[in-house]
Structures are given as C-alpha cells and as structure tokens.
Amino acid sequence: MIVIFCYGISWACGSVQARNNDRRILVSLNFDGRSRIQMEIKTLRYFLAVAREENMTRAAENLHVTQPTLSKQLKSLEDELGKKLFVRHSFSIKLTDEGVLLRNRAEDLVSMADKIEREFVSLDDITGGDLYFGLAESYQIGFLAREISRFKESYPGLQYHITSGDTEQVAEKLDKGLLDFVVLCEKPNPSKYEAIMFPESDIWGVVMPEDDPLTEKEVIRVDDLIGLPLFCSRQSWENDIPRWAEEKMAQLHLEGSFRLAYNASMFAKEHLGYLLTFDKLLNTTPGSGLAFRPLEPALETRLYLVWKRYQTFSPIAERFLQRVRRSFGAHTQNKL
In this model, does residue 11 exceed pLDDT 60? Predict the structure, then answer.
C-alpha cells in the first residue's frame, strides 16, 4: 500500500491500494478535523468529466459508462460530502460554489495520483521516466532544454512535462508535490528549498514600438519613463523594478500587469504602453515592429533551478539533478 499525504484548505488525501489486479486509489478528506470522508480517484475523474462537459450524456460517452451509472456515482459523491455540487438544468449542468472548490482540489489530486503511478511504473525502467517542471520566462530556459536534450540521449524513454507561470503559481505546485523542479526569477527561501543558479543573468530593459521616440536613446533611465504607461508582471513590479527606480518608484505608472511577455508585447506594439521585461524574450530585431533598450543603471536578475529541501526524488529525477549539478557546477549553491 502506498500512502499519500497532500495538504491544502481543509483537505488531505489518502492511499493507493491494489485489489484483485484493479488499482484503487482512495482519497481521505478531513473537514476541520471533525469528519473524514473517503472516495476513489475514479469517482473524482467522473466528477471532473461532468464538470468539463457540463453535460451528463457527453461525459458518460467520454468515460464509456452508462448515464445511470454516472448519475449514481455523482449522487453518491454529493451524499458523502453533504454538499450540492451541481445545479441541473434541462440540457446542461453547472457547478455550485462547492463544486468549483472540489474541482480545483480534484484536479490536483488526480494529477498527483497519475504522477505517483507513473513514478512507480518507471522504477524498474532504467531507460526513462517522467520529469515535471514549472518554468518562468527567460532565454536561459535554453540551458535547461540543452541539458534535457543531452540527458535524453542516455535515457531515451524520458518524458518531460512543462508548466509555465510566475513564482506563486509554480511554487504552489512544487509545494503540493505536483512538480519535481521549478525555475524561479528570485532567490528562493533556503529554509524550504534548495537551488542551483543558472550560468548567466537576465538583463532588464524596455520593449516599445520600433518607431517610438525613445528608441533614439541607447539606454533608458527612470526619468525617461515618468508619466508613461508601463506594462510589467505584478511580481516584478513589486520586487525587481523598485531596486532600479528606488525613491522614484512612486512616480512610475503601471498601466497593466501581464504574466506572459508575448501578450504584453502585442499591447506595446499598438502604442498602448512600454513593456518592462527581460532581454532576449521577444523578437525585437529590425522590421519586427518592436525595439529593446536596456535600463540604466543596469538591472539584472538571477535565475534558479529549485526543488524542495529534503525532497525524495524518483530515480530519473535524481539522475537529472546530478547531471545539472555537474553542468552548472560553478553556480551550485548548496545553502543559499
């Protein structure tokens, strides 16, 4: 029996058992420490299918079960939880607030169960396995891609799964055990994580239309941006830009925040604002419609490959980490 513990808002999860060659994955949910409810992952898969299709008939067809069987499973789930999960209309089904909460939790639990199953299947497979990454945006992701490419030469059965997002998004998935490694654009908390520093630094600058008057400058200073509409990620606006603007930060105007630089660049291209971002993320070559100018004084950000302290890796993840340690060796920080 494999026991899984996952912690979130008022829930935890339970065990994986094999019975008569039919693997049953049980989830144990605790509500404020007073009551415990157990359910199978299969039931959560049924629930997610209905939530996705918003139609019982289509969900049953996709799951290859009869509609009465599916309805019975969902009714049993609502009875176990003591909550109404769906509002049923004539031709559709909508989630209640409780149903939305369960959907969010169920997606994580199902992903965790799938990850654990694949890891155990790959224990005896010395040619491959699965790696899970959460990545920030940076040209230095190319260094990681190079290491994966070389690693795959030795382990041709390797499969890798990429999630993109900001620090908050990917760190949450790492904490839940859904990812093996994340790449962060800020120094991680050494009490929770270990990390390896990437070989180079990302250089900050401004992306703007290539016909903008500011392109006549070789570098951009704080005074150049005062009174102008600016685009930036919320994370960087709060953590990175103040290091550069210092006491003039209050005079800068954030027009809009973006998680993805490409989307923000489309707004900048239409003269809606000026994008503060890393160099080499976007095509700013002549004729692209965009131009990049570095900040003055220079602002740099280091990138880190991060994993949980005291994490127990799958065999393939442990081998990959050993390779990256050797490759990025001069930048490895055992204690940040």
Answer: no
Model confidence band, residue 5 (pLDDT cutoffs 50, 70, 90): very low
Q: What kind of fold does domain 203-299 have according to CATH?
A: D-Maltodextrin-Binding Protein; domain 2 (3.40.190)
Measured in whole angstroms, the distance separating CA 229 from the mean position of its chain's CA atoms is 28
Report the alpha-carbon distance of residue 240 to residue 185 in Å, rounded: 10
Summarised one tens digit per residue, pLDDT across range 48-65 is 888 888 888 888 888 888
Q: Using a CB cutoff of 8 Å and minimum separation of 24, what contacts does 251-256 make?
A: 251/222, 251/226, 251/227, 252/222, 252/225, 252/226, 253/227, 253/228, 253/229, 254/230, 255/229, 255/230, 255/231, 256/229, 256/231
> Which residues, other chains included, contact 143 with Cβ-Cβ below 8 Å and sequence gap of 6+?
198, 199, 200, 328
125-199+302-333 fold: D-Maltodextrin-Binding Protein; domain 2 (3.40.190)
Structure tokens belonging to residue 139: 């040209």
Q: What is the DSSP letter of 334?
A: S
Q: Is the pLDDT of residue 217 over 90?
A: yes
Rounded to two decimals, the pTM is: 0.64
- DSSP codes joined into one string, 273-329: -EEEEETTSS--STTSSEEEEEBSS--EEEEEEEEETT----HHHHHHHHHHHHHTG
Look at the block and give the residue holding tokens 């010395």: 126
Residue 205 has pLDDT above 80, yes or no: yes
**Residue recorded with tokens 């809009």:** 256
At residue 168, what is the residue type? E
| 4 pLDDT higher than 50 | no
* Residues 117, 84: Cα–Cα separation, whole Å: 31
Neighbouring-strand partners of residue 318: none
The string over 201-229, giving b where at least 16 C-beta atoms fall within 10 Å of a residue's C-beta and e elsewhere, is bbbbbbbbbbeeeebeeeebebebbeeee
Instruction: Please confirm whether the linkage preceding 297 is cis (ω < 30° from 0).
Output: yes
